[in-house]
Design brief:
It contains 4 helices and 7 strands; from the N terminus they run H-E-E-H-H-E-E-E-H-E-E. The chain starts with a helix and ends with a strand. The longest helix is centred in the middle third of the chain and has 13 residues. 22% of the residues lie in helices and 31% in strands. The protein is of the alpha+beta class.
């Protein structure tokens, strides 16, 4: 996670606003009320991080730099994902015939980047969740840095646009550590 965050932080045109990091371990709950089987694990641990940036430069320049930095193997294919995001921004979300384009996504297993999208259906990066206590945690650490961060709304008014990096410890099932249940 630190490596990915460092790669994105190094991209010219982005100014770090805040990072929300959460690490927790808990007993799993039954995934379905229709199942009688106990969960496979006795303990499951996951991490996630949300990193917010003010965009200081033109978003198309920043997206091109993100592509060049090889932050992650974007899906469906890295070069196509970046090219589509750039095309979307340049065309203001519209195809040459005037129809709406599908909103771009930069995602890979465990990694997703989103940014404020103006256009026909504007989308804005949402404020991060506060550090809520987990239900039935065995271990939990949640932190927001800097200690008194700028809000996403304040960053948007200062920079004009916000970009967020969302990370999970792994894509599926999302746990970096598990303790199997004894059989």
């Amino acid at each position: 996670m630190r490596t990915l965050i460092a790669r994105l932080t190094a991209v010219e045109g982005l100014e770090h606003v805040l990072t929300r990091f959460r690490d927790s371990c808990a007993r799993p709950t039954k995934h379905s009320v229709f199942e009688n089987n106990p969960p496979r694990n006795a303990l499951e641990c996951r991490m996630d991080a949300d990193v917010y940036f003010g965009v200081q430069a033109d978003i198309t320049d920043v997206l091109a730099r993100i592509g060049a930095a090889r932050i992650a193997p974007w899906e469906p294919q890295a070069d196509q994902a970046i090219a589509y995001a750039l095309d979307y921004q340049r065309a203001h979300g519209r195809n040459p015939d005037g129809t709406l384009m599908r909103a771009p996504r930069l995602q890979a297993p465990g990694v997703r980047i989103e940014w404020d999208q103006p256009g026909p259906f504007p989308q804005q990066v949402e404020e991060p969740l506060p550090c809520f206590p987990a239900t039935d945690p065995i271990y939990e650490r949640c932190s927001i840095t800097p200690h008194t961060p700028m809000s996403v709304a304040t960053a948007r008014s200062r920079y004009g646009r916000v970009l967020a990096l969302h990370l999970t410890s792994s894509a599926y099932p999302g746990y970096y550590f598990t303790v199997p249940r004894k059989k």
